[in-house]
Amino acid sequence: MEKRLDIKTGFLCNNNCRFCVQAWSKKHGNRPKNDIFKDMRAARKNKCTSIVLTGGEVSIREDFFELIKYAKKLGFTWIQAQTNGRRFAYMDFCKKAVKAGINDFGPALHGHNAKHHNYLTRAPGSFEQTSQGIKNMKKLGVNVVTNTVVVKPNYKYLPKIAKLLVELGVDQFQFAFMHAVGNAMDNYEDMMPRASKVAPYMKKGLQIGIDANKRVMAEAMPFCLLEGYEKYISDFYIPYTEIRDVTSYDLNFGKTRKEQGKRKFSQCKRCKYDLVCEGPWKEYPERKGNKEFIPVPGKKIRSKKEILC
Ligand code: SF4
C-alpha cells in the first residue's frame, strides 16, 4: 500500500487567495530547511514512498531545489510540488525542478481566464504565469494534476475551466469544494456556494474531462449530490497520508479527516452510500444546514469496489 508524506514547508506565498485555507498559519512563516529534512527522514522510516511538497508556496523558497534533491536522495519515488505554479512560467526553473527530481506537478487554476483567476488569487499576472507553467511542465513530459477550488464566484464556470484544462493538456484535474478555514472562513459569505447549486456545473465540468479521456476528481462533495459520478469522488483514491506541519504531525490524516473534518447527519442512515460517504466538511452544515443532503434510496453500498466496478 502506498504511503504518502504531505509536508508543509512553510506558509509564505506570492498569491493571497480569497479562500486560502492556510492563511491563518502565515504567522509561522517558512520552516527551516533542517526541520523539513528531519521530517522527511522520519517519514521514510515510516515507509512513506511518495511526497507532496506543499505550503504556503514551496516554489518561492530559495532552497526549493535542495528540498527536492534531498527527497530524491532519501528514496521517495514519487515527488510532487503542490504549487500555485507561477514560478514554473520560466522554462529554466522547470528544467531545474525536473532535474532535481520533481516527477509530478500539482498547480492550482481557479478561473478560465485572467479576470476570474486573478480576482480569486489577488495576484495580477498569476493566470498567465500558472497557465504557462502548465504548458512548460507538459513540454518536459511531467504528469500534471491540477486543482480548482470551487467557490461562489467560479462554480458556474466549471465547464469552461474544464475546457481550458483539456486544452492545456493536463493529465488530471480535480474540483475541490471549498473548505471554510483561513481566508475561506473570513470571506465566507462572498466565497461559500450552495453545494446543491454547484453540483450540475461540477458534473458538466467532470464530463468534459471524461470525454477528453482525462482523469477527473471531485473533492469534498457527498455522493447524494454527484449521482452518476460517484466513482470520481476523490476520497476513494487518497492514499494513506501523514501530514507534517510546523506545529503538529498527523500520522493518519484519512482518519482525522473522516472523524474530525467531515460531518454526517441523522438522515444519512437511510442512504445507500452511508457506509462509504464521508459527508461534507463540517463547516458547511454549521452555517448552511443539512437539508441539501438527501438520502439516496437503495441497497447499502459496503465498499468502494462496488462503485468502481
Ligand atoms: S450518506 Fe449522507 S451526505 Fe453522504 S450521500 Fe448519503 S445523504 Fe448524502
Describe this structure in words.
This protein has one domain: TIM Barrel. The protein is 36% helix and 15% strand. It has twelve helices and nine strands. α1 (33-45) packs parallel to α2 and α6 packs parallel to α9. The mean pLDDT is 95. Bound molecules: iron/sulfur cluster.
User: What name is given to the CATH topology?
Assistant: TIM Barrel
| Widest sheet: strand ordering | 7-6-5-4-3-2-1-8-9
Beta strand %: 15-25%
Structural classification: alpha/beta
Low-pLDDT stretches = none
List the domain count as a whole number: 1
Question: What CATH first level would be assigned?
Answer: Alpha Beta
As a whole number of angstroms, the C-alpha radius of gyration is: 19 Å
CATH superfamily: Aldolase class I
Count all strands and give the number. Answer: 9
Distance between the first and last residues' Cα:
20 Å
**Mean pLDDT across residues:** 95
Give the topology string: H per helix, E per strand. Answer: EHEHEHEHHEHEHHHEEEHHH
Largest sheet: 9 strands, mixed
Shape descriptor: globular
Helix amount:
25-40%
